[in-house]
Specification:
The structure holds two protein chains of two kinds.
Chain A: E1 5-7, E2 20-23, E3 27-28, E4 30-37, E5 43-45, E6 53-60, E7 63-66, E8 71-72, E9 78-79, E10 85-88, E11 92-96, E12 103-108, E13 128-130, E14 145-148, E15 152-153, E16 162-168, E17 173-178, E18 185-193, E19 206-207, E20 215-220, E21 224-229, E22 236-248
Antiparallel strand pairs in A: 1-2, 4-12, 4-15, 5-11, 6-7, 6-12, 8-9, 10-11, 13-14, 16-22, 17-21, 18-22, 19-20, 20-21
Chain B: E1 5-7, E2 22-25, E3 32-43, E4 50-55, E5 62-70, E6 74-78, E7 81-85, E8 91-98, E9 102-108, E10 120-132
Antiparallel strand pairs in B: 1-2, 3-10, 4-9, 5-6, 5-10, 7-8, 8-9
Classes of the chains: A mainly beta, B mainly beta.
């Protein structure tokens, strides 16, 4: 079987898969839809017929937070508004958004391999790579594809991804990383290590003391990423790893 | 060195420096799926905590995007931690912990009030990506 592999400059196409843009032997994480959701919206119909995978962010005053994050303004003051709550089923996405904050969602057509459901005609484009056993010319359900050109991919910028180390001794602490892209990119982050190893490896936002307000989170603007710690978080060193993607939130 | 680029639908400038306009750009590696599947967290009657582990052989902590079942026959996405109501309408914090050899999906109870009166099953759909986070 023929195989197509595209690697980042300087990397071996048969080497570490983390540096590949495409490998026809693997399924790409494919964004089939992205939507700006008004704060007043209560639902959005994705119509896939199976559970999608969604990346979600919300906006407060030009700062984009991951869903479930507490909100701080650019003067580092806590803002007493609530993150939207987002839930979904095989047909719709539901928004409980009591403070009417704008939302951005990226919907992936990928599903767990055993997923049932009708599916939808989501695959198209001139370059189409079907999974083994499926016909790329006639198949239209994105779940049967490794890749097709009608979708968007999450494009990692290695130069702008990295980690920050924060020495926390109480109160509000932040660390700023400039990206200077001129737009708000997608950023995902996790705790690599922290004073309580129970939370190592957990993605942000996270509350690092089970029963006290102790958030570690971040927001993204058009020029920078701001990581922050507050409340009753244990004192000590927090190492946060983050990936910046050349996908545009706003 | 050659660069492979594919524009997003509706975009026309193949020489654009705005990388977000491209669906694929070989200078910016894309996420690829290592494993996709389903798991079930079981909380026995009289208990309030449940977990399920999924093994992998990547040797580093990969990106995991999971979808957990919540009250009302709906689901919510969990990257790291999320406060929810489980299928039996009791409060919980769902958590995903990324390890170098396994992913742990948990339903963690609050201080009190989350003891299951009968067995609770929480369905988890997950994607494990090759990409490290």
């Amino acid at each position: 079987m023929a195989r197509m592999i595209i690697a980042k400059n300087g990397y071996d196409v048969f080497g570490d898969k983390r540096y590949l843009s495409l490998d026809s032997n693997d399924t790409s994480f494919m964004i089939i839809d992205e939507q700006d959701i008004a704060g007043s919206a209560t639902e959005y119909t994705h119509g896939l017929g199976y559970l999608p995978t969604i990346l979600e962010f919300f906006n407060y005053n030009g700062q984009w937070f991951p869903i479930d994050s507490p909100i701080y303004d650019t003067a580092d003051a806590m803002v007493y508004l609530d993150s939207p709550i987002i839930q979904y089923d095989v047909n719709k996405i539901y928004f409980n958004n009591i403070d009417s904050l704008p939302i951005k969602i990226f919907i992936s057509g990928n599903a767990s391999d055993n997923s049932a459901g009708s599916g939808k005609n989501t695959a198209s484009g001139r370059l189409r790579i079907a999974k083994p056993g499926y016909d790329a010319e006639t198949e239209t359900d994105i779940r049967r594809f490794q890749f097709c050109t009608a979708v968007d991919l999450m494009k990692k910028d290695f130069a702008k991804s990295g980690q920050v180390s924060m020495s926390y001794s109480g109160g509000f602490l932040k660390a700023e990383v400039n990206h200077n892209l001129g737009y708000v990119p997608v950023v995902l982050a996790k705790l690599e290590s922290n004073p309580d190893s129970n939370y190592d490896g957990v993605s942000l936002p996270v509350n690092v003391s089970s029963f006290d307000y102790s958030p570690v989170s971040y927001y993204v603007t058009s020029t920078k990423i701001v990581f922050f710690i507050d409340g009753s978080a244990a004192t000590g060193t927090y190492v946060i790893k983050y990936n910046l993607y050349r996908n545009k939130i706003a | 060195m050659a660069v492979v680029k594919i524009l997003k639908q509706g975009e026309t400038d193949i020489d654009s420096s705005d990388i977000w306009r491209f669906a694929l750009h070989s200078d910016y590696p894309a996420q690829k799926i290592y494993d996709a599947g389903q798991a079930i967290i079981t909380i026995p009657a009289g208990q309030e905590y449940g977990s399920v582990a999924v093994s992998h052989s990547l040797g580093y902590k990969p990106t995991v995007i999971a979808t957990f079942e919540v009250y009302g026959s709906k689901y919510t996405r969990v990257l790291g931690q999320r406060n929810v109501y489980r299928p039996d309408n009791k409060a919980s914090t769902y958590s995903v912990k990324n390890g170098t050899s396994q992913i742990l999906f948990e339903s963690i109870p609050p201080i009190s009030g989350a003891i299951a009166s009968s067995t609770v099953q929480i369905h988890v759909n997950y994607l494990i990506l090759y990409e490290e986070l």
